[in-house]
Design goal:
The complex is a heterodimer of chains A (about 350) and B (about 525).
Chain A (H helix, E strand, L loop, with lengths): L14 E2 L6 E2 L1 H18 L8 E5 L4 H16 L5 E8 L6 H15 L3 E5 H5 L3 H8 L4 H20 L3 E3 L4 H14 L2 H6 L15 E2 L7 H11 L16 H14 L3 H11 L1 E2 L9 E2 L6 E2 L5 H11 L10 H8 L6 H7 L5
Parallel strand pairs in A: 3-4, 3-6, 4-5, 6-7
Antiparallel strand pairs in A: 1-2, 9-10
Chain B lengths: L33 E3 L3 E3 L1 H19 L7 E5 L4 H15 L9 E8 L1 H4 L3 H16 L5 E5 L22 H14 L18 H12 L16 H12 L4 H22 L4 E4 L3 H14 L5 H5 L2 E2 L6 E3 L7 H10 L20 H15 L3 H10 L1 E2 L31 H11 L40 H6 L4 H8 L9 H19 L11
Parallel strand pairs in B: 3-4, 3-6, 4-5, 6-8
Antiparallel strand pairs in B: 1-2, 7-8
Chain lengths: ~350, ~525
């Protein structure tokens, strides 16, 4: 006997929601998913009327679904936003060029303007060239730091008021777990915020409307709505530390499906003792971007790459910041430590 | 890598490979007997010194155990708590000037009824433990988990703490003690300068009088619990659907029993034997359970949530490896007693999964446990909402931590409520607001959906919505997994009814109350 949808109690249930376990029909699921995102946006007051919002589009499932849902909600609830797509080309052959094709297809489908910024034009380095120099172990650091700055620079070029990224509940939960495992108390405090604080010049606030949407539900949504997206994993990702946190989270979800929301809830309710040293937000002396050190991380990484000392950005070298800013040469000993590690 | 203080300046230098013929790194004269962490080799004597010193330093640094105080040691028979017992015994018996100066007692909670052990097995385990405990000469209290059914509801109240705690008064207390001369035996647990009719003492006497259970005096052995109580316990635990919730519930009941024993036997502090590795696993597991708000109390050195009884964890600096080595090298006896998660598959419960994850990660990244431990030191417990009302309505019924289920619109908790609402049809008949829920026993399970979140499945009794509003986020999840909430021990149910009535009274007269009183 077919199961009936638990929401409208009429149509036949086509799927079981991973988040709550209820059986729903397609239409009710679409409606529930979209309304939850709407509730997230409204309760956190993410947008104001008339803003221009850039959607960070990678061609993957999260950003495709995000673009679709935002367009639907913008029309349905009259947010009055001007939406556009912003994409970053890291220069990973075989991965990024294919996903950019998907983004261009999305642009045609949703009729949103698109801008692509690339690492090559911003920094002079593609990810492939970086991996050749750095090796396979710490390259995710380079990609992540550069991409964030690339998004901000692209947003400034387009003169938007906000950036939206497609981070979902699983991403945030993984980040909380990873920060606990790494002992990074400063990031632990900030990582569950739905919107970055965005004070200071040159910093466009970034928000995550899909913060409470499970990854599985995003896939279900895309599947039933027949949205096309690019679904291959980055070829360099298996060696990242985040993989451990992700495997753990997947196991937790298997034991108790609400575990993902529980982890986010824990992360939101943590409080840090007073007197713990936290980084202070300032600006980079070289490029003017926000930074908590004298030199921002991407300047450090670039400096390291350009000088052939790829480990310069990995780990903290406070003493060297001054030297680099003043263009002094590093001692032989320091240079030796900063060269790439042979595998 | 992302830490503020970490410096990778030396990471690429060659590290010395430890080998057996190394010298002890401390005294450099004896040959090393064991290696701790990455490269610290110790000889026997230095290791013992290091181990003992850590225990004293932990107690001394925190200055929470006052001299002459009665302290209850919660011993489960496992290696960490047996080690703690041995340390305390050693510390008290030595004639060194740094002798420990408190009066200990031992409590052991027999959980065989919940873990499915037979009476004979339980009695055998108790006999083994008794022989270890009797060698120490401290008063012994053996408490069976079944006694949870005769606890008074006052266990769930956080009585106001004894008025001590600043460094000044610690020093004062130490000086006073030295001046009095160290008299052994039953030291008083109150300060000599307390005025007559001190509220805390009265509370303690009052609470002791409320006890309906007979807690045995020192060497007197407790009879095994009645079959009626055993059956009730069995029914409770079999009605819990998931192992995660069962473990959580067992831990809560265990804590309540320990606190009650401490109160009735007038102990002011309780020492728990949680080691560093165990606490790292607990921290990560608690994050997965949704207990982020109370991480500091669950894993920190001191746990003040019960008010007058403070729980301390002096073993929190020791890794399980160090404890195992010490127990083996210096002959500390421990008894293995099976628990709920013995021999279960890896993914049977969240706690068990976390434990295997952390131990596995520790082999690849040896600093995992210590990093997690240091993270726990930087956390604190946020003040709960509504700190008025003596924190009564603002504390969870089961775990006694401040409630973290505020109605903050932009939060994960709110998002889960919204999802629940959107995924199902709202119940068409709404029960009359509030009055319907407060009649206590003998009421049928009418839909109380309108009172809380609008979702009340048909097979649950009406008690579930009542309890939910009194519980913190993770205790709600535990109760959600409990099919028969009525099988919870009576003290929990009566306390729940009482709190609901109080809050309803309060709402009725809210506009006439001038001051926030501490009723």
């Amino acid at each position: 006997m077919p199961v009936v949808c638990s929401c409208c109690a009429q149509a036949r249930a086509m799927l079981k929601r991973p988040k709550t376990g209820h059986s729903l029909c397609r239409e009710c699921f679409f409606w529930a998913f979209e309304e939850e995102v709407h509730e997230t946006i409204v309760s956190a007051s993410l947008f104001t009327r008339g803003e221009t919002v850039a959607i960070g589009a990678s061609g993957g499932k999260d950003s495709t679904v995000l673009a679709h849902v935002l367009k639907v909600l913008n029309d349905r609830h009259h947010y009055g936003l001007k939406l556009l797509l912003l994409s970053v080309d890291e220069g990973i052959t075989g991965y990024r060029d294919d996903s950019l094709e998907t983004v261009r297809r999305n642009q045609r489908q949703y009729e949103l303007p698109l801008k692509i910024v690339s690492y090559e034009e911003l920094y002079g380095w593609t990810m492939d060239a970086i991996v050749k120099q750095v090796g396979l172990k710490n390259n995710c650091t380079f990609c992540g730091v550069f991409r964030r700055q690339a998004l901000d620079r692209g947003a400034m070029m387009l003169k938007v008021d906000k950036i939206c990224t497609g981070h979902n509940a699983d991403d945030i939960a993984e980040t909380v777990l990873m920060n606990v495992l790494r002992g990074d108390i400063a990031r632990l405090r900030r990582c569950t915020a739905i919107c970055t604080s965005g004070e200071g010049e040159g910093a466009v606030p970034r928000c995550k409307p899909l913060k409470y949407a499970y990854e599985k539900e995003i896939v279900l949504y895309a599947y039933f709505k027949r949205l096309d997206y690019f679904s291959t994993e980055c070829i360099y990702s298996p060696n990242a530390y985040r993989g451990h946190a992700r495997a753990f989270l997947k196991d937790l979800e298997a034991v108790r499906p609400s575990a993902i929301m529980d982890v986010i809830h824990s992360g939101e309710n943590l409080s840090v003792r007073e007197g713990v040293r936290m980084p202070v937000q300032g600006t980079c002396n070289r490029c003017g971007y926000i930074s908590s050190q004298a030199l921002c991380k991407s300047c450090m990484l670039l400096e390291g790459l350009n000088r052939g000392l790829p480990r310069l950005g990995i780990g903290k070298h406070h003493r060297l910041h001054g030297k680099i800013l003043a263009q002094q040469p590093l001692t032989l000993d320091e240079e030796r430590k900063l060269k790439a590690v042979d595998f | 890598m992302c830490e503020i203080d970490e410096n990778y300046g030396d990471i690429l230098e060659k590290s010395t490979i430890p080998c057996v013929s190394q010298m002890c790194m401390k005294c450099k004269s004896n040959s090393a007997a064991l290696i701790i962490r990455a490269g610290d080799a110790f000889c026997r004597g230095c290791f013992k010194e290091y181990f003992v010193h850590k225990f004293r330093a932990m107690l001394g640094k925190n200055r929470l155990i006052f001299p002459g105080e009665k302290v209850l040691l919660a011993v489960s028979g496992g290696p960490a708590s047996s080690s703690m017992l041995a340390q305390v015994q050693q510390g008290l018996s030595q004639d060194t000037p740094k002798k420990l100066r408190f009066v200990p007692g031992i409590v052991y909670i027999d959980e065989g009824g919940a873990t499915g052990q037979s009476m004979e097995e339980r009695q055998m385990a108790i006999a083994q433990l008794k022989s270890i405990f009797q060698a120490t000469g401290f008063p012994i209290h053996i408490v069976h988990l079944e006694q949870v059914f005769s606890l008074p509801g006052s266990v769930l109240e956080a009585a106001s703490p004894t008025p001590t705690g600043t460094d000044g008064s610690y020093k004062g207390a130490v000086d006073q003690y030295i001046r009095k001369g160290s008299t052994g035996g039953a030291g008083p647990s109150e300060e000599p300068t307390q005025p007559r009719g001190h509220p805390v003492l009265d509370v303690q006497q009052h609470l002791a009088q409320l006890s309906t259970m007979e807690v045995p005096s020192s060497q007197h052995s407790q009879e095994m619990p009645s079959s009626q109580q055993s059956q009730a316990l069995e029914m409770l635990f079999s009605s819990v659907r998931t192992l995660t919730a069962r473990e959580d519930l067992l831990m809560t009941l265990r804590h309540h029993l320990i606190v009650h024993t401490a109160r009735t036997q007038s102990y002011a502090k309780v020492m728990m034997g949680d080691s560093c590795s165990r606490l790292a696993v607990k921290l990560l597991g608690n994050i997965a359970l949704g207990r982020g708000a109370s991480l500091a109390t669950d894993t920190g050195f001191s746990d003040p949530r019960h008010g007058d009884i403070m729980l301390v964890r002096p073993m929190r600096d020791y890794t399980s490896k160090e404890i195992a080595f010490y127990n083996r090298m210096f002959g500390v006896a421990s008894v293995f007693i099976p628990s709920l998660d013995t021999k279960v598959s890896e993914k049977a419960s969240i706690q068990h999964l976390t434990e295997s994850f952390v131990t596995r990660l520790q082999t690849d990244f040896p600093s995992t446990v210590s990093t997690i431990y240091r993270t726990s030191e930087k956390l604190q417990t946020a003040c709960g909402p509504q700190d008025r009302d003596a924190g009564l309505t603002a504390r969870c019924l089961l775990c006694m931590c401040p409630l973290d289920t505020t109605s903050d619109k932009s939060s994960a908790f709110h998002a889960t409520l919204v999802s629940e609402k959107l995924s199902q049809k709202l119940p068409s008949e709404a029960a009359p607001p509030k009055q319907g829920c407060l009649s206590s026993t003998g009421r049928q399970g009418k839909d109380c959906g309108a009172l809380t979140d609008g979702c009340c499945s048909s097979d649950r009794t009406g008690r579930v919505p009542e309890l939910r509003s009194l519980l913190c986020y993770s205790c709600r999840l535990t109760i959600k997994d409990t099919a028969a909430v009525d099988s919870l021990p009576p003290y929990i149910l009566t306390e729940a009814t009482r709190r609901m009535q109080r809050s309803q009274m309060r709402e009725e007269i809210a506009e006439f109350l001038l001051e926030e009183d501490d009723g």
